[in-house]
């Protein structure tokens, strides 16, 4: 006899709004959004969570999350999150930032937030390019990578080397949890969700600054197919930005999520 009982294995997170995405086909921002929403639902944090998004592809994040959200000037999300968390210490506060935003115009803000040990969570989307503003070279652009402002490929002798933010922030005394993950396949997406969960756990336990860096795709500005963009992350980005745990507070080690 065939069972007619259905088991729900997939549904929209309660922390998501029911709107169409503005992201380009193949962009993994949407995956990152879903992972954040799932974690917030599972931890029961939605009613007290405040998100901060600056200028960039993340600028419309407030449209997708069913929670309090504020927009920050370009690069200033950590500064705004600092103010919110200090005024409302019982709330869960996170920023959602791209690489141009976090590692270029916002470099001072992110460095000093980590140095102060601000008890906030940062989700850092690294797609090695400026997405929204025209595909220019970012601080994370790979050597030889072509962009609209480096049409012949990034020349490290002229413009320097990619900046590895996870490695930099991991040495800050105020950091409690710093990791790098990727969104290019199912196995790594699962690992990314666990990392996001631990980052929010770090904040709930008062362990200081936490950041999850996620290697992400941008097929539109990379000018390649969606499938090739996933291979680009695996073959080109990961060798430059190795995945792994760069700093994990002893209070989080062995935590089951």
Topology:
Elements: H1 29-43, E1 49-53, E2 68-71, H2 77-87, E3 92-98, H3 99-105, H4 107-116, E4 121-126, H5 156-159, H6 165-170, E5 175-182, H7 186-204, E6 209-215, H8 219-222, H9 226-240, E7 244-248
Parallel strand pairs: 1-2, 1-3, 3-4, 4-6, 5-6
Antiparallel strand pairs: 5-7
Helix pairs in contact: 1-7, 3-4
Task: Report what the structure shows.
This protein has helices spanning 29-43, 77-87, 99-105, 107-116, 156-159, 165-170, 186-204, 219-222, 226-240, and strands at 49-53, 68-71, 92-98, 121-126, 175-182, 209-215, 244-248. The protein is an alpha/beta fold and 257 residues long. The protein has a single domain, classed as Thiamin diphosphate (ThDP)-binding fold, Pyr/PP domains (Rossmann fold, 3-Layer(aba) Sandwich), CATH 3.40.50.970. Strands 2-1-3-4-6-5-7 form a seven-stranded mixed sheet, with helices on both faces.
| Total count of domains | 1
The order of strands across the largest sheet is: 2-1-3-4-6-5-7
Q: What class, by secondary structure content?
A: alpha/beta
Total number of beta strands: 7
What is the percent of helical residues?
A: 25-40%
Fraction in beta strands: 15-25%
Report the average pLDDT across residues.
95
| CATH topology-level name | Rossmann fold
> What's the Cα radius of gyration?
18 Å
Unreliable spans: none
Q: What's the order of the H and E elements? A: HEEHEHHEHHEHEHHE
Shape: globular
Number of continuous helical runs: 9
Keywords:
single chain; Rossmann fold; 7-stranded mixed sheet; 35% helix; 257 residues; globular; alpha/beta; 9 helices
């Amino acid at each position: 006899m065939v069972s007619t009982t259905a088991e729900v294995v997939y549904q929209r997170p309660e922390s998501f709004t029911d709107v169409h995405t503005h992201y380009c086909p193949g962009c993994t921002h949407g995956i990152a959004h879903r992972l954040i929403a799932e974690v917030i639902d599972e931890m029961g944090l939605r009613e007290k969570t405040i998100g901060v998004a600056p200028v960039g592809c993340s600028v419309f994040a407030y449209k997708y999350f069913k929670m309090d959200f504020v927009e920050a000037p370009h690069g200033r999300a950590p500064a705004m999150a600092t103010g919110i968390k200090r005024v409302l210490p019982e709330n869960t506060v996170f920023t959602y930032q791209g690489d141009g935003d976090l590692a270029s115009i916002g470099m001072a803000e992110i460095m000093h937030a980590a140095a102060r040990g601000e008890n906030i969570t940062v989700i850092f989307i690294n797609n090695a390019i400026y997405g929204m503003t025209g595909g220019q070279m970012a601080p994370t652009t790979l050597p030889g990578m072509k962009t609209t402002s480096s049409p012949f490929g990034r020349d490290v002798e002229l413009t320097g080397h990619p900046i590895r933010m996870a490695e930099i922030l991991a040495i800050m005394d105020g950091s409690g949890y710093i990791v790098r993950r990727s969104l290019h396949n199912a196995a790594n997406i699962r690992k990314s969700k666990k990392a996001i969960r631990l980052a929010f756990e770090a904040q709930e336990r008062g362990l200081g600054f936490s950041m999850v860096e996620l290697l992400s795709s941008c097929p539109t500005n990379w000018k390649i197919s969606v499938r090739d963009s996933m291979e680009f992350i695996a073959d080109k980005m990961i060798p430059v930005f190795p995945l792994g745990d760069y700093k994990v507070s002893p209070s989080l080690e062995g935590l089951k999520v």
